[in-house]
Write a structure and sequence with these properties.
Among the domains are: 207 residues, no CATH class; 58 residues, no CATH class. Helix 11 runs antiparallel to helix 12 and helix 16 runs antiparallel to helix 17. 45% of the residues are buried. It starts with a strand and ends with a helix. It contains 20 helices and six strands. The strands form two sheets. Strands 1-2-4-3 form a four-stranded mixed beta sheet. A two-stranded antiparallel ribbon has the order 5-6. The chain is mainly alpha-helical. Helices cover 61% and strands 5% of the residues. A hairpin with a 3-residue loop joins strand 3 and strand 4. The longest helix is centred in the last third of the chain and has 20 residues.
Length: 423
């Protein structure tokens, strides 16, 4: 089995908003959490060493309320706060060197590359992973439940929704599983429910906080988008039948992935008219225009997305940099380079931004910088031999004492030291 890792700004921003709330007054800052979203119809989430949080998309789709999703996040954060991760098969901190492709919902096929990341044999379980990747004892699961309740209730989120979601997990996990299954590493759901109910009543006076209407609305739009992305068009149209904006969003995504781009554009234009300040509708319609080779409209909509988001994001800069690069007007190449550099300033591990930057440099006949950018990409994907070759090539003509010159030399030194360590 392989992970199908996706990246999406709407999904990441919403999750970070919930996590920031949950981590208030804890020893971990929200910025210390690394997020990885897995396209999967299994209800799973887990954490690994290095504060890495993995979430299957079905977690959100299975939730009817953002507080159910928050309860799952609270449980996994509790494992991090409790230091429960004590062994891994792979050093997850080196994810950047394992050729993880950068994907955005809506442009999976356009950006190129296989959608599988090649992390073979890693079968994920909620707070447990087979093949010894990460393991949590039943005692730690109970401890994480208690800590999750504390995180929820102390930060004004109704902790009863952890019980709601546990019931869904119980129904989703089969009883005839092997020795490393969810059921053998987790307490019975009935036992967990008893402990949680007791804590809610005795320690937090029921913990019955009201729903945040705005967060719920954001969540429902996000859920609709993910449903259209991860389920068939037939399923999506069966579930999202009405003419509400939320249903239009799901159908716009489903239509896009089924190749009916014109219908997606019609639906998204209606959504933009009704929600002119939403950046995500403009991002998606920009992606669709890009797929139709209408680069001017793609650029214009992505500019509006960046403006409306009010928060810099490496993916948005990567996407618009790609749009400028694809336009046949060569005067756009310098703008592409500027935007891709912004993307890499925010996230130096964005391998696809390095690829696009190398391409943009090559288009402007700046071969030495193209070679340098290629060296960075190979280094991040773990191809150290190729990284070394391209770094050496770049230094033959790259301007001395520039940032790129220093960094190319740094890469060579790092790779040489790695070789010495292996002897």
């Amino acid at each position: 089995m392989a992970f199908d890792i996706i990246r999406d700004v709407e999904l990441e921003n919403f999750t970070k908003k919930i996590v920031s709330n949950l981590l208030e007054n804890t020893e971990i800052e929200p910025e210390e959490i690394n997020y990885y979203f897995i396209k999967s119809k299994d209800i799973n989430a887990f954490v690994t060493s290095g504060n890495n949080l993995f979430i299957n998309t079905e977690i959100l789709i299975s939730s009817d309320d953002y507080r159910e999703y928050a309860s799952v996040l609270a449980h996994e954060l509790a494992h991090i706060l409790g230091g429960h991760v004590f062994r891994t098969k792979h050093e997850i901190g080196k994810l950047g060197s394992r050729a993880f492709p950068v994907y955005v919902l809506g442009i999976l096929g356009i950006l190129g590359g296989a959608t599988e990341t090649g992390m073979a044999t890693l079968m994920v379980g909620s707070a447990s992973v087979q093949d010894g990747f990460t393991y949590y004892s039943r005692t730690q699961e109970a401890s994480a439940d208690q800590a999750a309740i504390r995180l929820l209730c102390k930060n004004g989120i109704n902790g009863n929704y952890l019980l709601e979601f546990l019931g869904k997990i119980d129904m989703a996990i089969p009883y005839s599983t092997d020795a490393t299954s969810y059921r053998s590493t987790h307490p019975l759901v009935s036992e967990r429910a008893t402990w949680i109910e007791s804590a809610l009543m005795t320690q937090y006076d029921g913990c019955e906080f009201s729903q945040d209407i705005d967060l719920q609305n954001e969540f429902l739009f996000l859920k609709a988008k993910l449903f259209g992305f991860t389920h068939s068009g037939e399923e999506t149209y069966a579930v999202y039948q009405s003419n509400r904006d939320i249903d239009k969003y799901a159908k716009a995504v489903a239509s896009y992935f089924s190749g009916n781009h014109d219908n997606s554009i019609i639906l998204l234009k209606e959504l933009i008219k009704n929600n002119p300040e939403n950046p995500f509708f403009r991002e998606l319609i920009g992606e669709i225009y890009f797929s139709k080779h209408n680069y001017r409209n793609a650029i214009e909509n992505q500019k509006n997305s960046i403006r409306l988001l009010n928060d810099e994001n490496d993916l948005y800069y990567m996407m618009i940099g790609n749009y400028y690069l694809a336009d046949t007007d060569s005067s756009n190449y310098s703008e592409s380079i500027k935007l891709l550099k912004k993307s890499l300033r925010l996230n130096p591990k964005n391998t696809y931004s390095w690829y696009l930057l190398a391409k943009a440099y090559a288009e402007t006949d700046n071969i030495s910088l193209a070679e340098y950018a290629t060296a960075e990409r190979h280094y991040l994907t773990g191809n150290y031999a190729m990284a070394q070759q391209f770094a050496i090539k770049s230094l033959k003509n790259i301007e001395k004492n520039t940032t790129e010159w220093y960094r190319a030399n740094d890469l060579l030194n790092i790779i040489d030291n790695m070789k010495l360590e292996n002897y």
